[in-house]
Please model this.
Amino acid sequence: MNAFLDTSVLVASVRESDFRHEASRRLLGQCDPQQACCAAHTLAEVYATLTGMRPPNRFRPEQAILVLDRVQAKLQCVTLTVNEVTQVIRQSAAMRLHGGIIYDALLLGCARKVNAQRIYTWNEKHFRLVAPDLADRITTP
Model:
């Protein structure tokens, strides 16, 4: 798999007021499911983020579903097995990571699973903290 896109990139790709919008939109537009992916959990994160924003930025649920349909048309969705999730949690605990960063670790577990060559995020700092061995693959759009 050539590219893995995280939630921050997908949300920015549809929020025209976001300064990262154009780069994110362009990247998603170039993707196809044979070469690019995201974590299946990212679909829930995108929905929660878009529908949970304060007005006037909040997306209606039906608008968010249209975004998810586009994402699924452009990206393959990757899942982890229970054993893979447990392994990621154990590795995170061994690194003394705590709190919400576990969700970044799970996303990176999906990127590892498909051997993504480029991992696109607007959260480079946390991604590199979780996966220093993947630092050369982690980038912004």
In short: The beta strands are 3-5, 36-39, 76-78, 118-120, 138-139.
